[in-house]
Amino acid sequence: MSQVQSNQVAQESIHGHEHAHDHHDHKETFITKYIFSQDHKMIAKQFLITGMFMGLVGMMLSLFFRLQLGWPGQEMPILETFLGKWAPDGVLDPNFYLAAVTIHGTILIFMVLTAGLSGTFSNLLIPLQLGARDMASPFLNMLSYWFFFASSAVMMVSLFVETGPASAGWTVYPPLSALPEASSGSGLGMTLWLVSIILFIVSVLIGGLNYITTVLNLRTKGMSMTRMPLTIWAFLITAILGLLSFPVLLAAGLLLLFDRSMGTSFYLSDIYISGQAMEQTGGSPVLYQHLFWFLGHPEVYIILLPSLGITSEVLAVNSRKPIFGYRAMIGSMLGIAFLSFIVWGHHMFVTGMDPLLGSVFTFTTLLIAIPSAIKAFNYITTLWKGNIVFTPGMLFAIGVVSLFISGGLTGIILADSALDVNLHHTYFVVAHFHLVMGVASMFGTFAGVYHWFPKMFGRMMNKKLGYIHFWVTIISAYGVFFPMHYMGLAGVPRRYYQNFEFFDGFADLNVVISIFAIIGGLVQFLFVFNFFYSAFRGPKAPKNPWKSATLEWTTPVKGIHGNWPGEIPAVHRWPYDYSVPNGEERDFIPQDEALSEQEKEAKVTH
Amino acid sequence: MLMNIALIALIVLTVLTAARLLNVIQAAATLRGQKAHEVSESDNQLNAFIWLLYLVGLLGMFVYLTVKYYNDQFVPQAASAHGEEVDSLLNLNFIVISIAFVITQVLLIWFSWKYRYNKTRRATHYAHNNNLELIWTLVPAVVMAVLVLKGLIVWSHITDDDEGAINLELYARQFDWSARYSGADNALGKANYTMINNDNILGLLSPESIMEQMTLLRRDSTVTDSSIVNGFLPEEKLGKEKTRLRRIIHQIRTIAGFRYEYETGAESFASTYDDVIVRDTIYLPVNRPIKLTMRSQDVIHSAYMPHFRVHMYCVPGTETYFNFTPIITSEEMKEKLSDPDFEYRLYCNNICGATHFNMMLPIRVIDGEAYDTWAAGKKTFGQETTERLAAKGWITRFANNN
C-alpha cells in the first residue's frame, strides 16, 4: 500500500510540474511537437507511421519474389521499372531474389512487428491505461524512436548500394554473411544490415527499460499489478524478454562484424573460397546460430505477446464480457516467456548438434503447447455467451485467435526433432511461422490500430473499409500460407529462386498463392488510405466510443500533454467489469468508478 | 517516362476521388443519424454470417488440400529404414493437430456467430472457472507427453549408430556436391582445407598430394611475392595480393606440418589411396546401412534427401553425421510410382548463395552386387593422383622432393 502511495506522490509531483509548464511556455514549435516530441502519444504515432511505411516496403519486396515464384522466368516489365538492373528484361535476378527474401524478413520481423507493434502500443497504452502523465523518461523514449528511425533509414539505404542489400536470409548465418566472396550481398549491404540492426537493438533496449520502469513505478493509485489490463501485462513481459535477449544478438552481430573486417575467427574456420584458403581456423559457424536463436526464439514472443495482449483487451470489450481466466492468462504469458529462453535449439536440430540436446529442446518446446492451449481456450470461452459487437478491431482480434491456432498447431510437428529433420527449411516452416507469428501479429497490430485510432487521432476510421480490409486480408492470408504446408510436406525447400524443375506438381498451386499474395498486398493500400483519410477527415470520436472500462477512455478526446487535465483518476476495480449483473442498464463499469455499496457488501475484490 | 508520370497522376486522382467519395458517403450516413462508432444491426448480422462462410471455407480448404496433396503422389515416399517410422509419427501428429484444429476453429467461429450482438440480451459475466481451466491444461499436457515420448523414441532410432555401416562422405561447396566413398578399408582418409586445389577439390591428404600442393604453393608464393615487390600494383590490388601471400604462407606452414608427420612416420596418410570421389551421380547399395559424414568447403550447405528423410547441415570447419539405410532401389521406386524418369535426389537446403536452388545431385539405389561391381570399377584417389603427377612429369616419390 505504501508503495502505491509513494507512486501517487511521484505522479503528483509530475503533475505539479506540468502545471508550471502550462503557465510558462505554452508554445510548442512544430519541431518539438511533431519531430523531437517527448509526448508518449506522439512517439507512438511516430512508431506506427514509420512501421507502416517499412511494412509497405517489406510487402512490396514479398510481391516481387512472389511474382518470380508464381511465374518463374517470365518477363515482367513492372519488375524492371521498380528494380532496374536487379531485374534485367523483367526477370528477377537470383541474387536480388535472395536479397528480397532477406530484407522482407528483416523489415517485417524487426521494423514492423517489433518496433511498429510494441513501440506503438506500449508507448500509447502504458501511460494511458495505467494512469501516468507520461513515460518514466520521455527523453529516452524520444531517443528510442530516433534510434529506430536511424535503423530503418540505414536499412533503406542498404537497398540502394551497388552490390545489393544483404542476401543471406534474415538469420544471416555466417560464413555466407561474412564473406563478400561468397555472395555479392555480403559486401557493403551486409555491413549496413549489421549497423541497422545494432541501432535497432539500442532502440529496443532504451524503449524496453522505459516500459518496464513505467509499469513498475508509475501506476496510479489503486492500480495494483493484478488490476492492470492484459495489454500492459503483455507489454511488460515483452519488454523484459527484449531486455534479456537483444543484447545477445548485439554480441552475435559485433562478433560477426569483427570476423568480417578484423580477421578474427569467431565463426570462421577452414574456409577455402575464390581459390584461396583463408587463415581463420578454430571458429564455429554453429556458435553464431546458438547466439542468434537465443534472441531469435524469444523474438517470436516479443512479436506475438503484444498482439495477444491487444487481442485480450479487444475481445473482452467487444464481447461485453470479462476476459476469461485473467490470472491464467498472465500465468500462461509468464510461462511462455520463461520457456521461450530454453527452446532455441529447435531451430538447430540438423546443425550437427548433439542428439541428446535435440531431445531436451524437443521436450521444452512441446511444453509451450500447454500455456498456448490455455490462451486459445480462454479466448474462445471469452466469446461464449458474450454479446459480440463486430467492430473492425474485433474482427481482427478474432482473426488473431484463428490464426494463432492454425499456425500454432503445426508447431507441434516442427518441435519434434524426429519430424523436423525432413521439414526443416521447407515451406512447412514458412507456412507455420507466417501464420502464427507473422500474420497473427500483423492482425493484432490492425486490431490495435482500429481499436485505439480514436485515442490517437480523436477521429473514427471508416468501418466499411475496415470490414473489406479484414475479410480480404484474412482470406488472402490463408490462401497464401495454408497451401504452403502441403508444399513443405512434399519436401519443397524454401528460399529457392525457382522450385519447379524437381517439384513440378506445385506449379499451379504457386500461381494461386501468388495471386492471393497480390490481392492481399493491394488491399493494404485500402487500409493506408482509410488511416490517413480518417486521421484528417474522419468523423469526430466520442470520449469512449467502444464503452470500454479501461482508463485511457477517461482522458479528453483531444489528447493533451500530461493526459488528464485535472488529477489522475484513482482505480477501484479490475479492468474487466463488463455486463456485471447489477440491474443497471449500462453494461460496463469504468475502472475509476468507486465500488458501490452493494459491491462493498458483497466484498468483490478483483 | 511519360507513362510513369501518367501512372502517378492516375494514382493521385484515384486517391483524391476516393477521399471525396468517402466524404460524401460519411456525410450521408451522419444525416441518416448513424454514428461512426456504433456498429449497426445489419453490419453485425452480415459479419456474423461471413464468419460462418469463413468457417466452411477454412475447413473445406483444409480437407481439399489434405486429400489432394497429402498423399503418395506428392509426399516423397519413405525409402529408408527410419523413414517409415518417421512417417507414422507424422501421421499421428497430423491427426492430433487436425482434431484440435477442427474443434477449436468450430468453437471460435460458432460462438462468434451465435453470440453476435443483440440489443435485448446481456452478456454473461463469467470471469473464470478453475475446473475448466484445469481441464484444458491437463488434456494438452497429457497429449503432449504422449507425442514427446513417441517423438523421442523415433529420434533415438534415427540418431543411433548402425553397426558396420558404409562410410560415405558428402562434400559441399558453392554450388555443387561431391561424394567420397571410403573404399576397401571403409575408412575416410584425412583431409584438410589447405590441401584444396583444382585437382583435389576435397583437399585429401596423401604423400603425393602433399608434395604436389607444396610445389604448387611455392610457385604461387613466388609469383605473388614478385608482383608485390615489383611495386607496380595499384593500392587496392596490392592489398589483395598481400592477403593472398599471407594466406599462401599460412597454407605452406600447415602443410609443412603434415609433411613432418609423414616424414617422422607419425602418420602415413595412406587411407586416402582407396577413396573414390564421385561428382555426377551417387550410387548406394540397398539395405546396407550408410554413415554419412558431411563437410563443406566454404559456407554452410545442407544435405537434404527427402525420400530418405535425411537432412543435415554441412558446416565448414567441422564434420556432421547422419545414419540411414536405403530400402527401396531406384528401379523399384520407378515401378511403384510408374514414373520411368524417377530419381532420388540430394538437394542443398540451406541458403548458400545465388544459385543455391540449383545445387543438386541424383542418387541411384541399386542392389548390393551391382553396387560392388560399380565400386570396383571406379578409379581411386591414389590412382588419379599418381596418373596426374606422371602426366605432368613431376617426381612421384615424396621423399625425393626434399
Any descriptors?
heterodimer, A: 606 residues, mainly alpha, Cytochrome C Oxidase, Chain A, globular, B: alpha+beta, 5-stranded mixed sheet, extended
Task: Walk me through the structure.
The complex is a heterodimer of chains A (606) and B (402). By secondary structure, chain A is mostly helical. Chain A is built from 18 helices and 2 strands. In chain A, strand 1 (272-273) and strand 2 (276-277) form a beta hairpin. In chain A, 64% of the residues are buried. Residues 1-25 of chain A have low confidence and may be disordered. Chain B is an alpha+beta fold and 402 residues long. Chain B has 3 domains: 42-118 and 130-160, no CATH class; 188-274 and 392-401, no CATH class; 276-382, Cupredoxins -  blue copper proteins (Immunoglobulin-like), CATH 2.60.40. In chain B, 51% of the residues lie in helices and 14% in strands. The N and C termini of chain B lie far apart (70 Å). Classes of the chains: A mainly alpha (606), B alpha+beta (402).
Overall pLDDT confidence of chain A? 92
Q: Order of strands side by side in the largest beta sheet of chain A?
A: 1-2
Task: Output the number of helix runs of chain B.
Answer: 9
- Mean pLDDT of chain B comes to 92
Q: Work out the helicity level of chain A.
A: 55-70%
Taken together, the total number of domains of chain B comes to: 3
**Unreliable parts of chain B:** none
Q: Strand percentage of chain B, roughly?
A: 5-15%
From the 3D coordinates, which CATH architecture of chain A would you assign? Up-down Bundle
Give the class-level CATH name of chain A: Mainly Alpha
Q: Which structural class do the helices and strands of chain A define? A: mainly alpha
The helix-strand sequence of chain B is HHHHEEHHEEEEEEHEEHH
Shape of chain A: globular
Straight-line N-to-C gap of chain B: 70 Å
Return residue spans of chain A where pLDDT drops below 50 for at least 5 consecutive residues.
Answer: 1-25
